[in-house]
C-alpha cells in the first residue's frame, strides 16, 4: 500500500467512526461528486477525495464542544459563531485533521474550513467541495435544480455531422431530467461548467432557505454571495 493510500484509508476510518451512517452516506456522495468535478477541472483528484471525506467529520460534535475546541485553537470567533457553534464544524475540523493526519496542503484545509459558509476568492478545490456539498444526489432536487441549471451550460458535442445533429446533441438540463440517476451518471465533459455562477446561485438558495426558516445568516455567506455576483 502506498503512503497516500494508507493515509486515505486512515481518513476514511476516522470519518466513518465519527459520524452516523446517514451522514457517512452524505459524505460518500460528496466525495464522489467532488472527485468527478476535480477531474473535469483538471484539479488533483486525491485532494478532492481527502477534503470530501474530511469536510463533515466533526458535523455531529456538540456546538459547545466545537466552540471550546475553536477557543483552544485560538480561532477568532464572532458573536454568531459563539451562539451557533455548529457553524464551526468545518474550521475546527481543518485544524484538527491538519495535526492528526499531518496535512499541510492549505487548499485541502481551506476547502474543509470554508465548505459551510463559503468564502470570497476560494481556491478551485474549495469551490468544488462547496458545490459538491450543496449538490450531492440526496439533496432536495427543488433546492438544487437552479444550481445545477447554472453550473451545467449545454455544450454541443464535437462529433456532430451537421447543424441539425449538433442541435439535437445539445445537453439541456431540465427539472424532469434531474434525478439521482442523472446526478450519479453525470458526465461533466458534456457541459461547460459555470463554477462561479453556480456558487452565487447556491448562496442565493442558502440565503432564501435561511430567511424562510427564520434562521440567522452569517455575514460570510453574504460576502461570498456578493463576491461571486461581482466575479462571475
Ligand atoms: Fe458541513
Ligand atoms: Fe456536508
Number of DSSP strand runs: 2
- CATH topology-level fold name: Hypothetical protein af1432
**Strands ordered across the widest β-sheet:** 1-2
Shape: globular
| Proportion of residues in β-strands | under 5%
Structural class based on helices, strands and sheet pairing: mainly alpha
Give unreliable regions as ranges.
Answer: none
Full CATH superfamily name: Hypothetical protein af1432
Would you summarize the structure shown here?
The protein has 232 residues and is an all-alpha fold. Helix content is 63%, strand content 3%.
What layout of secondary structure does this protein have?
Layout: H1 3-18, H2 21-40, H3 45-54, H4 63-72, H5 79-83, H6 89-100, H7 106-114, H8 124-135, H9 141-151, E1 152-154, H10 163-169, H11 180-184, E2 191-193, H12 195-212, H13 219-230
Antiparallel strand pairs: 1-2
Helix pairs in contact: 1-3, 2-3, 2-8, 3-7, 3-8, 6-7, 7-8, 8-12, 9-12, 12-13
Bound molecules: fe (ii) ion (2 copies).
Residues 26, 30, 55-56, 133 line the site of one fe (ii) ion.
Explain the overall architecture.
The protein is mostly helical and 232 residues long. The protein has a single domain (3-230), classed as Hypothetical protein af1432 (Orthogonal Bundle). It is built from 13 helices and 2 strands; from the N terminus they run H-H-H-H-H-H-H-H-H-E-H-H-E-H-H. A two-stranded antiparallel sheet has the order 1-2. The relative contact order is 0.12. It binds fe (ii) ion (2 copies). Residues 55-56, 59, 89-90, 115-116 line the site of one fe (ii) ion. One fe (ii) ion is lined by residues 26, 30, 55-56, 133.
Amino acid at each position: 500500500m502506498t503512503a497516500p493510500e494508507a493515509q486515505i484509508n486512515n481518513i476514511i476510518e476516522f470519518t466513518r467512526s465519527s459520524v452516523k451512517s446517514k451522514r457517512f452516506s452524505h459524505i460518500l456522495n460528496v466525495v464522489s461528486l467532488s472527485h468527478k468535478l476535480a477531474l473535469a477541472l483538471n484539479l488533483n483528484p486525491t485532494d478532492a477525495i481527502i477534503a470530501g471525506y474530511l469536510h463533515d467529520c466533526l458535523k455531529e460534535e456538540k456546538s459547545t464542544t466545537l466552540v471550546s475546541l475553536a477557543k483552544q485553537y485560538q480561532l477568532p470567533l464572532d458573536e454568531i459563531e459563539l451562539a451557533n457553534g455548529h457553524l464551526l464544524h468545518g474550521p475546527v475540523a481543518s485544524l484538527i485533521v491538519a495535526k492528526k493526519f499531518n496535512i499541510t496542503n492549505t487548499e485541502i484545509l481551506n476547502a474543509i474550513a470554508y465548505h459551510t459558509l463559503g468564502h470570497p476568492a476560494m481556491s478551485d478545490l474549495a469551490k468544488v467541495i462547496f458545490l459538491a456539498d450543496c449538490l450531492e444526489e440526496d439533496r432536495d432536487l427543488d433546492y438544487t435544480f437552479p444550481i445545477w441549471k447554472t453550473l451545467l451550460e449545454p455544450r454541443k458535442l464535437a462529433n456532430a455531422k451537421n447543424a441539425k445533429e449538433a442541435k439535437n446533441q445539445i445537453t439541456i438540463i431540465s427539472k424532469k431530467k434531474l434525478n439521482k440517476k442523472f446526478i450519479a451518471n453525470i458526465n461533466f465533459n458534456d457541459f461547460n461548467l459555470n463554477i462561479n455562477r453556480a456558487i452565487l446561485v447556491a448562496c442565493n438558495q442558502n440565503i432564501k432557505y435561511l430567511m424562510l426558516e427564520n434562521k440567522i445568516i452569517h455575514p460570510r455567506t453574504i460576502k461570498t454571495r456578493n463576491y461571486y455576483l461581482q466575479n462571475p
